[in-house]
Amino acid sequence: MTRTFTASFALLLLCASSTLAAPVDWNYWMFNQAGFIQSGNQIVNVSYSSADYHEVILGSPTWAPTSTWADGTILDNGLTQNNNVMMLFGGTQTVNTLSFSQPVVDPVIAIWSLGSVVQGPASFVFTGYNPQLVVGGPSSEYGGSPLSLSGVTVSGLEGNGSVQFVGTYTSISWTNPQFEDFYGFNVGILGLVPEPSSYLLAALGAAGLWFARARRGTGRKSH
User: What stretch of H or E contains 101?
Assistant: First the structure.
């Protein structure tokens, strides 16, 4: 009966977790090349490198509407103005790189106001990656349309959207080949890779449970 209950409970947890959106820990840009993400009680430092013109804009944009960043199914929460935005101009094949101070799980790049009705579409080209477009829509500031994904290229015409990279990463790189006056982005993560000590504790805990059960089993046989 205990095994049946345990198996049923595990299945219930699995089904529940598959229907719940994951909370995103978003980056707070502080300077033109530095930010940080707080994930639980840990801090992940974020750095950005590019030869193209870029700058951190404080308190902008509104990151609205939230529905263009979080769909409530995969991603649970969007950004706020406190997160700031890294503003880009682009227009070259310069490689832009986001780097994390430790391995992160399933990072998400939120792209704001990509493309212009005057200057035309713009794009992020994630060569060598497998980007997945989660959600998108018009920006509150400029309207527009949702982002689109074709292979490794995310394009927009005044569009917002969230792009996820499933897996574990220490950096993500891309190019912005089309020129546009300004568009922006930020980054979030769904978790961190546990430190080796965490794996050791989990293994010791599992071994302890196995040993306790084995002793109980031996005790029953002796009577």
Answer: strand 92-105
Burial of 200 (0-12, 13-18, 19+ CB in 10 A): exposed
Q: Write the single-letter amino acid at 162.
A: S
Q: Dihedral through CA 177, CA 182, CA 183, CA 186, nearest 10?
A: 100
Q: How far apart are CA 26 and CA 46, in angstroms?
A: 11
pLDDT mean over 105-112: 97
Going by C-alpha positions, the residue among 178, 126, 185, 190 that lies closest to residue 154 is 126
Give the three-state DSSP class for 187. strand
The answer to whether the peptide bond before residue 194 is cis (omega within 30 degrees of 0) is no
Please, which residues bridge with residue 112 across strands? 184
pTM, rounded to two decimals: 0.80
The one-character DSSP state at 190 is: S
d(CA 83, CA 186): 8
- The pLDDT of 11-39, averaged and rounded, is 76
Using the structure block, give the residue that is written with the tokens 């897996």: 167
Q: What is the mean pLDDT of the chain?
A: 83
Residue 1 has pLDDT above 50, yes or no: no
